[in-house]
Design a protein that fits this description.
By secondary structure, the chain is mainly α. The chain has helices at about 1-10, 20-50, 55-80, 85-105, 110-140, 145-160, 165-175, 175-185, 190-195, 210-225, 225-245, 245-250, 250-255, 260-290, 290-310, 315-345, 350-380, 380-395, 445-465, 490-500, 500-515, and strands spanning about 435-440, 465-475, 480-485, 520-525, 545. Keywords: Cell membrane, Membrane, Plasmid, Transmembrane, Transmembrane helix, Transport.
């Protein structure tokens, strides 16, 4: 009975028990429905006003490029400002872009570059709101519900693909793009209202907000140090590059291979969404049966089957079935990769890691859209689909070198408590740079275990903010080792210690064991001062020992 209850509590629909998440999630589905209707209208409008296959493919690329260029900035904003306010601003920008597009269309302005420009502006709104929304999941929900929540976001978005594109195709065919753009604008009212009416508790910090450039640096450093996140980013980028061909080239498949119109295009997108829905429903069970690496391989195989089938078929029904495989692979791949980033990131940096991950994966999608469009234009549509299928197989094979871990929960959450040492100087938050040295007395027989611990120590300290970390050994006293690192300011020194997790703190106990028959480690904190001639008096260093 307990096992049944546990499966129910971590099932796909478990996050919907949270009223705040449920309200914002459902409102977001309504706006996503409108946005997908608008995407159909924009893609079909581009196919009718432009004869360039590349311009058609760039409609997909233009909405994803902002996430590539702006991601690290919006991630730092999401981690340092109210994520709720950031989401409201992003959604408002999307509504404004749709409203302006509606007005211009009402005046008969349908230039191809205008279409790309407003698709790009929509992408800017997505780039701003999406990282804040995904980073907020850990604030709203229990950590055990995060995999289900990430899957639910992907399932929810892809489910409306089974309705939005078909509905958008019908509206475009019957009423024209103008009505579609107007309905999309109204659809953005729902998430803005839900965000305005709902507030959720966010764990506060006693420390002041980070400077934007420092926050960006910390986010980039953490991502560069985390092998889990790096592997996920590489595989996600290449997966997006390979598998986006079916979405980017689908208007051409409908127009050139199937000789069909916007309604058939909507039906094809509906098949993609139906496959995504089915995969999402069985995703919790798949996660219990297969490792995350095998789920990524399965997603790549599904994308391969979809692309090859589209290249070979000439009728609507087989193409729709093929797209169901593509949708299943799409949601399986992105749900697993997104969950991996969430669980490998502590709350203080999750907005930035999600943004960096999104930047590269959206960049892969945008690059793939452009490349497959070029292949279709200069060779053939069939060649582009076949080449993308081969690329998806290579992404699956890359797991031999860059496997995706099967992390089930994060061990990186910070303790959030730190008792600062007493100070003899009047230090301000921006006083610095701060130099920290720790001396160890290690017997010769413990030198190798000590170096192993120090490798982990360097990774841990650098991940949470230590800069210029070094380890030195006294040439006159072989048992004396000195660890050294810097932080830019006194407040950054505090921030580093606030970010350490319980597992990180256990390293101190290991060092104590290695030096238990000698003197214990001793830490000294110094405030660096310039000795340039411009100074009128020599500085006095701050020394604190513990």
């Amino acid at each position: 009975m307990d096992a049944i209850d546990d499966r129910a509590s971590t099932g796909l629909l478990a996050p919907l028990k949270n009223s705040t998440f449920r309200s914002i999630f459902l409102a977001s589905q309504l706006s996503s429905l409108g946005w997908l209707m608008q995407t159909v209208a924009l893609s079909w409008l581009m196919a009718t006003v432009s004869t360039s296959d590349v311009m058609v493919a760039l409609v997909q690329a233009s909405s994803t490029l902002p996430a590539f260029f702006l991601a690290i900035f919006v991630g730092a904003i999401a981690d340092n400002y109210s994520r709720r306010a950031v989401m409201i601003v992003g959604r408002s920008l999307m509504m404004a872009a749709s409203a302006m597009l509606t007005i211009l269309m009402a005046f008969g302005i349908t230039d191809p570059w205008m279409i790309l420009a407003f698709s790009f502006l929509d992408g800017c709104g997505i780039a701003l709101s999406d990282p804040a929304w995904r980073a907020s999941l850990g604030d709203m929900l229990e950590r055990r519900h995060l995999p289900a929540a990430v899957t639910l976001l992907n399932v929810g978005f892809n489910t409306v693909r089974s309705v939005g594109p078909a509905l958008g195709g019908i509206i475009v065919a019957v009423f024209g793009p103008l009505v579609t753009f107007a309905l999309t604008t109204l659809g953005f009212v729902a998430p803005i209202t839900a965000l305005w009416r709902n507030k959720w508790k966010v764990q506060g910090s006693s420390l002041p907000r980070e400077a934007l450039m420092t926050a960006i640096y910390d986010g980039l450093r953490f991502t560069a140090i985390s092998s889990e996140i790096k592997s996920t980013i590489v595989r996600g980028t290449l997966f997006g590059f390979a598998s986006t061909s079916t979405l980017a080239l689908l208007p051409l498949v409908a127009r050139d291979i199937l000789q069909a119109g916007p309604v058939s295009y909507g039906i094809l997108m509906g098949g993609f969404g139906a496959g995504a829905l089915l995969a999402g429903l069985i995703n919790p069970r798949l996660r219990r049966m297969l490792t995350q690496e095998w789920l990524v391989v399965l997603a790549c195989m599904s994308s391969t089957v979809c692309a090859i089938s589209l290249a070979l078929t000439t009728t609507l029904t087989p193409a729709t079935v093929a797209l169901a495989f593509g949708g299943a692979g799409w949601v399986t791949g992105w749900s697993g990769l997104g969950t991996n980033v969430q669980l490998a990131s502590p709350r203080w940096v999750v907005g930035r890691t999600i943004s960096i991950y999104s930047a590269f994966t959206y960049g892969g999608i945008a690059g793939g859209s452009w490349v497959w469009g070029l292949v279709a234009e200069h060779y053939s549509l069939t060649a582009a689909l076949a080449a993308s299928a081969g690329a998806a197989l290579l992404v699956a094979a890359l797991g031999l070198k860059l496997p995706i871990s099967n992390r089930s929960e994060s061990e990186l959450e910070p303790l959030g408590s730190f008792s600062a040492p007493p100070v003899a100087l009047d230090l301000k938050p921006r006083s610095g740079p701060i130099l920290v040295t720790t001396e160890y007395s290690i017997p010769e027989e413990n030198a190798e275990p000590f170096l192993d611990l120090m490798r982990e120590r360097r990774r841990v300290q650098s991940r949470v903010g230590a800069r210029q970390w070094t380890l030195t050994r006294d040439v006159q006293d072989s048992s004396r080792w000195v660890e050294t690192f810097r932080t830019p300011t006194w407040i950054d020194f505090h921030r580093l210690h606030h970010r350490l997790s319980a597992a990180d703190k256990l390293l101190d106990d290991e060092f104590m064991k290695l030096s238990q028959y000698t003197r214990p480690p001793r830490t000294t904190i110094l405030l660096e001062r310039s000795t340039s001639a411009a100074r009128k008096s020599a500085p006095v260093p701050y020394l604190s020992q513990k």
